[in-house]
Fold PLP-dependent aminotransferase family protein.
Amino acid sequence: MSKMELVKEYILGGIKQKRFVEGQKVPGCREIAKILSVNKITVNKAFKALEEEHFLYCVPRGGYYVVKSDFEEAPLSKTIDFQTVAPDPTLIPYQAFTHAINQSIEEYKKKLFSYESPLGFAELRKTLQERLARDGIYASSSQMMLTNGAQQGIFLALKTIFTVPSEGKLLVESPTYHAVLDMAKSLNIDCSTIRRDPTGIKLNELEHVFQAERIKAFYIIPRYHNPTGYSLLENDKKMIAELCGRYHVLMIEDDYLADLGMDKRCLPLHYYDTNQLTIYIRSFSKTFLPGIRLGAMVFPDALRDTVIQQKYLSDICTSSIAQGALNFFLTSGMYDRHIRKVNACYRRKLVKAKAILSHADLTGFSFHVPRQGLFLWITLPTEISVERIAEKLAQKNIRVSRYGMFNNEVQGLRLCIAGVPEKNLDSLETMLNVIKEEKKFIN
């Protein structure tokens, strides 16, 4: 073992044994040099190596601190919130991202404090170009724009496509992300709907809509659908892309939970589009830091000038400091380690939720728990009011989102497991009892 490795082992051992508490300063260079009988240059080299490996971060003229990747588990809240789509607070890497901000400012200096191109920070777009290519999205960095979250990306896509709202309609799934309907309404865009159920989208119905109506764009969530949690089959995605190409319908693909996908066989819709008709949108909020408000959109060359113009009119450019920090987080490998941790946590929650719901013995009741993702979908018997169930659950401090769809033929509850502590998932038993009581009362 070299002397530098000896220093590294001493510090890592201290972290493992909790002698060096996460988020606090480690012993200084002179102290460690004296303890291990090595020179200060060797200690400094070890500090730098551990910083590059993201075990430590440096505060200028303040020494080295242990990177804190998580926090103590928060006390249980009285309210169990299955409604809010936000990461578990214990999974948010506050300290590590602070380190990333410091490093990016040091590396890029004044560049982060001036106006950037409306497309976004060039270094981050280059990093994302390589990262997206691994996921089957092949585009140049000039076809990519950084946005203030996925929601701004969707809004920019709608404004770009529907410069004249009366020229065509927006097709959306039923049910769908509610904010898209609000955006369309604010922009005076007419909407048509197509049913999305456990089997996906009926391709013959989709073609009939394309033939019968003036559909200009199709907003679709192929993977980890909001609110149902369903994902489309690969062949269906391929056929949808072919139909959109045949009828020249632009696709707005909302892939907001792409980083929760560990199955490389599950590809984005963009991968199957051979006609350059897809605006692909991605978020870093749901799996990372909600407050960072960063998303990315990939667009066809034909729409480039209009997209840039709409972005410039919206806010000129997205925060360069946040973009620089995210670029460091991605290139350093810290983001991938964080995502593995998030995926493991959410998978445990999904397994537990499925085990609880599988014991439900209710006629007309069904549920969907995906292998990955954030949303559980519970379909209720038609005679039971989702509004009444939601109200009764609220009285027991359980918050859920309720949906009616398909002309009220099907109604359901959307449960988001992201911010609910694993031990609080036992409240699903309470939910089932409420549904049973309501069904018994109606009968």
